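In this supplementary section we document a worked example of the pipeline. Step one takes a protein sequence of length 265 as its only input; no multiple sequence alignment statistics are reported here. Step two produces a three-dimensional model, which step three serialises into structure tokens for compact storage. The input and output of this example are shown verbatim.
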Amino acid sequence: MPITSPVPTRAELIDHLVRTRIAGDVATPRENNLDHYRRLANGDRHFWLGLELGERWSDEQDVLAVMAERCGVIDDPRHREGQDTIDPELTLAALDRAAAQLRKSAEAGHRVLFATGHPGALIDLHSRVANALRLAGCEIVRVPLGLIADQGVVVQLADIAMHERGASLWHTHSPEPMTAILDALEREGEPLPDLVFADHGWAGCAAQRGITTVGFADCNDPALFLGEAEGTLTVAVPLDDHVVNPRYYEPMTAYLVEAAGLTPA
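The serialised model returned by step three reads:
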């Protein structure tokens, strides 16, 4: 089903998500998903993405059940390898919840912080939403300069906080860059963001600090979905967070901005 206008209909977007493998039969294999669920359940904090999960999710079958409910992975625990899935209807539903939060922030003129651990895929999505919120009257938080985290620095380009090492932007799941930002804002007497729009540990850390957070997560990153299930994270949007062409996210971004009632970015 071709997209016939700049903003897709729900049916067009669902078809697009499946065709581009942002949802539907995604590239992340079942073995990888189950391995990450097991490691989270065994207490490996790398997979907690900045959230404090304690011992509440020590059974990997409980993690799988939440991921089936909120992400749409195959719910059969006997399915151990091969194809896994993200339900595009759940992606759309989460985008609608994210749009509702963006609308609230626009109406309130909130301070909003954007960050991504997937600069090779999601930076344009984040930047377009940031621009739309700025046009709607929101303040986009400026990240303090000179912040060090994980043997690199925190940089802000196109309104988006990212992690840089060796003059390259890094894919990172770590919460430490977001910790550095929030701690620096407090040290400098700046108010914390009213909303964080992020992914990976950037989102988990912000949510754990009590900030309203919209996060994007793949089916092998269960922590944000657990955080949403517990009410720590406001919205977790399920999607493959690094498909082969970053332009594939453009229709989804247009839908999100339109659903939020924002000026097109």
